[in-house]
Amino acid sequence: MPDEFLFDTHEASKSDIFDQLIEAEQHIPGLVFSYPPISSWRPTPQEEATPAQLWQGSDTFSQNLYIHIPFCRQKCSFCYYSVAVIKDDTDIIWDYLRCLEQEAISYTDQFAGKHIETVFIGGGTPSRLNEEQIDFLFDHVIARFDLSLCREITYECSPDSVTRSRLAVMAAHGVNRLSMGVQTLDPEILRKSRRTDDPDEVVRTYYNMVESGIPNVNIDLIAGVEREALANTELTMDGVSALDPLPTQITLFTLSVREGAINKTTLRADEPIRLFSRSLALYRYAKRRMLDMGYWQYSRNLFPREDWIFHYQDNHWGNNGYVLALGASGYSHAQNYTYMNAFNYREYMRRITAGESPVEKWSPLSADESLRRHIVLAMKHNELDIAKFNSFYPTDTQPLAQFTSVFEALRDIGVITMNTERITYTDHHADLTDRYVRLFYSDQVNTRIRGDLPLRPARSDAFSFTV
Q1: Candidate from 358-367, 420-429, 453-462 with smallest mean pLDDT
Q2: DSSP 3-state assignment of 333?
Q3: How far is CA 47 from the centre of its chain?
Q4: Do 29 and 86 fall into the same domain?
Q5: Which residues does residue 333 pair with via DSSP β-bridges, in sequence order?
Q6: For residue 354, what are the β-bridge partners?
Q7: Disulfide: which of 99, 357, 362, 454 matches 352 by Cβ 3.0-4.6 Å?
């Protein structure tokens, strides 16, 4: 069974698509977080990857900023991101921050007069930065951009590094959303995941975050991590439900097994389809518990309380917003390109220090691919507002019309409901959006994924999935 089921919708009838949807149920819907998929991107001609070329004409959608901080105290079993495991080497952190500053400066001209709407500081573990380093990040990197109309700044934190004093510095710089990777509150699963936290420490850290005055506090959970059983997930959800106040948001993931992650080795004896099936069942148990607590499903992974929208995700996915990503492995979206910096942080720093472009690979975007990117990521949400989607395109066009047979097949198989205003997933199908969004991939992208192996070092790329 291939690791990725790709649909063939070119000139396909509704009946053909219907049959493919049935076949897709036998395959794993690996996480989709960009389009075209990063594993299909080409190496970037260094002489062409200039900020001026990459960002030409990027004025239609919102402007957003991502900053990657790779430093961690340990690598968790499920982590496939670009991370650097260091203990107390503050010199390398300072060197990296100065590289971020240089990269930010290189984009000054392209972002002159543009307002950044959201900022996301992720990793890695951004809370590894001490108070002075957090100040530097905001004063020397983020301050290079116009945040006068910014409505959300997210800072990712970990229980083993975020302190009250660091939270105070974040708050002073305008951070209004915190996100902590909890994953589980079961001590056995924490240990198997190679995390040094214990549940009591995680809960204490959560209350420190709440008491910081930063209003929006999200926690991340992973269902099915390290072969956990229902009893392990029950323990986690019992612990979450006991929090007072509850998190404003919970981000719930199914298990991912990818190149570069430790669990790629530790779970190699397990059949991927069985791993995913267990993870999905536990995800749905956790989802039911969250709905009982007053959360609602906003996207494939995000469950807010009340109206606590995650604006960065809403801009990036729901509304096709541009993203300038600074740092190692950061992947950006401009009008005509999606592109990614060097994945390895030392190679990223080498390039910046040498005055070279940090961009390692890219995928040019035609008008059609840009539209497909918009719909692929928008359809990861529980519903699509048709009028809002259309508002980004000329009034005399019907951007969704070419996908009519896809939508009708999804409706007829019971995956969505639709009317003139909204397209909405039905019940459990919102949990499987990563399967259905592949219906909107172009023939060219599918061809590259299926067989153009020189363009994708598929089994050595952390963004290729097993589960």
Answers
A1: 453-462
A2: strand
A3: 29
A4: no
A5: 323, 338
A6: none
A7: 99
Same domain, residue pair 278 and 195: yes
Instruction: Give burial (CB, 10 Å; 0-12/13-18/19+) of 130.
Output: middle
Weakest mean pLDDT among 40-54, 98-112, 255-269, 346-360: 255-269
**Can you tell me the distance from the alpha carbon of 364 to that of 438, in angstroms, rounded to the nearest whole number?**
19
Distance, CA of 335 to CA of 316 (rounded, Å):
13
pLDDT, residue 460, reads 41
Residue 257 has pLDDT above 60, yes or no: yes
- Residue 411 belongs to some domain of the structure: yes
Quote the Cα angle for 179-71-74, to 5°. 90
Beta strands in 375-452 (DSSP E): 383-385, 416-418, 422-425
Torsion, CA 191, CA 192, CA 194, CA 196, rounded to 10: -10
One domain, residues 292 and 408: no
Report pLDDT for 193: 66
Would you report the helix, strand and coil content of the chain in percent, each value rounded to 5?
40, 20, 40
* For residue 245, cis peptide bond before it (omega within 30 degrees of 0): yes
Tell me which amino acid residue 175 is.
V
Pick the closest to residue 254 from 417, 110, 428, 424 (CA basis). 428
**pLDDT over 70 percentage in the chain:** 89
Q: Which structural domain, as residue segments, surrounds residue 33?
A: 14-39+370-450
181 phi/psi in degrees, rounded to 5: -80, 95
Nearest Cα to Cα of residue 110 among 46, 56, 48? 56
Residue 52 belongs to a domain: yes
In the structure, what pLDDT confidence band is assigned to residue 189 with cuts at 50, 70 and 90? confident
Residue 442 phi, psi dihedral angles, 5° rounding: -80, 160
89-147: pLDDT as tens digits: 789 999 999 999 999 999 999 999 999 999 999 998 899 999 999 999 999 999 999 99
In a domain, 392, yes or no: yes
For the record, the structure tokens of 396 come out as 């005399």
Does residue 68 form part of some domain?
Answer: yes
Which residue is listed with tokens 């996301």? 120
